Amino acid sequence: LSDRLTSVLSNLRSKGRLSDADIDATAREIRIALLEADVALPVVRAFIAKVKERAKGAEVSAALNPAQQVVKIVNEELVAILGGETRRLNMAKTPPTVIMLAGLQGSGKTTLAGKLARWLKGQGHTPLLVACDLQRPNAVTQLQVVGERAGVPVFAPEPGNGVGDPISVARRGIDEAKHAQHDVMIVDTAGRLGVDEELMKQAADIRDAVTPDETLFVVDAMIGQDAVTTAEAFRDGVGFTGVVLTKLDGDARGGAALSVREVTGQPILFASNGEKLEDFDAFHPDRMASRILGMGDVLTLIEQAEQHFDQDQAEAAAAKIGTGELTLEDFLEQMLAVRKMGPIANLLGMLPGAGQMKDQLSQVDDKQLDRLQAIIRGMTPAERSNPKIIDGSRRKRIANGSGVAVREVNDLVNRFYEARKMMKQMAGRFGFGGGGGGSS
Ligand code: GDP
Ligand code: MG
């Protein structure tokens, strides 16, 4: 993807305004990125349409080139859809707060039960785990192991009674929670590998028996495109008030998050990222957006470019770059602007396809920039704006004044014209100058 994006970025630089063609070109890349992240196709379509609409109405930023700007809009839109701020758990006014877990088998419900219990306990709650998965022989034992690790008691049907009734266990779980003064109870339920009518009804019956304050749909991030149908089935069969995304430690890009969120409108509350109980965190929409987009480095670069961008200066420089009138003075300013963004090497590392420029820029390390700066500072304004007048005696004076050899001044002047070409490229890549026509 990175290569494709690079070509888009370079094709689009140096244009003053977002055209439909600019937006379409970048939108195509975004579309591929989302599909690669396993976002369901209808969700991708709706999302791209929304982004295009916003990009068309957007004011052109002078800090970013058009492609960067579209990527920025995409990211903002993703964060907004994924939930903006994280929502907290709904707690009951009269305890116990009942949290029910629902989801396919293997989605991570039982593990999550332990994680949630441990997390709530850490916040001063006194949770009780209730074992309502009686489908598989070892499901209860698994919850008991998890409960022991979390240091949280488990309410389960007495062993030896054959297969118990999960609805009755759920009911008795509430009595137990009240009796033993647990302020939260977490109900673990059964799930099948596919969506299953009978189990869906069982979950609905448990729901009716305990009237949960929060029903969490637990979904494996690796589920990919199937997230939509699964989420719809659970929404219609049981209903849920929040989503937990699991197995984010895997290499799934997390498109399921966007799909589930778009289709059900329910917030994603937590993220699970490992088998251990502490591998658990509140859900962070911004992190997930960046993961889905798969352009974290580009996003960092955009942020930095915006932060350190001096609009007036760049607009002036951009105009000059456009007409090929860049002076040494501008060169110095641009160099300083780039340096404000951090060491050159870091910047290069962040650019997709930086390889293409690395050869040209390898000669421009930070120390060398210091020397170049010193030389330019040693010149008169006339010399800076018109390097052609810098003859032999001027070179000698400048060299003496800035403490370098005459050869270095020669180098600088000779390379200035070459550098001017390079600055044009950098202007496009880093966002200044390239999009610098200013607004409207
Ligand atoms: P349930 O069938 O929904 O109760 O799912 P389980 O809690 O039994 O989890 C199924 C498997 O996934 C188990 O092997 C868990 O250890 C594993 N698992 C659960 N959550 C995560 C997670 O966030 N990351 C990883 N890597 N494994 C997980
Ligand atoms: Mg389970």
UniProtKB/TrEMBL annotation:
GO terms for biological process: SRP-dependent cotranslational protein targeting to membrane. SUPFAM superfamilies: P-loop containing nucleoside triphosphate hydrolases (SSF52540), Signal peptide-binding domain (SSF47446). GO terms for molecular function: 7S RNA binding; GTP binding; GTPase activity. The keyword Transmembrane does not apply. It catalyses: GTP + H2O = GDP + phosphate + H(+). It comes from the Bacteria. Composed of three domains: the N-terminal N domain, which is responsible for interactions with the ribosome, the central G domain, which binds GTP, and the C-terminal M domain, which binds the RNA and the signal sequence of the RNC. Belongs to the GTP-binding SRP family. SRP54 subfamily. NCBIfam families: ffh. Involved in targeting and insertion of nascent membrane proteins into the cytoplasmic membrane. Binds to the hydrophobic signal sequence of the ribosome-nascent chain (RNC) as it emerges from the ribosomes. The SRP-RNC complex is then targeted to the cytoplasmic membrane where it interacts with the SRP receptor FtsY. This is Signal recognition particle protein.
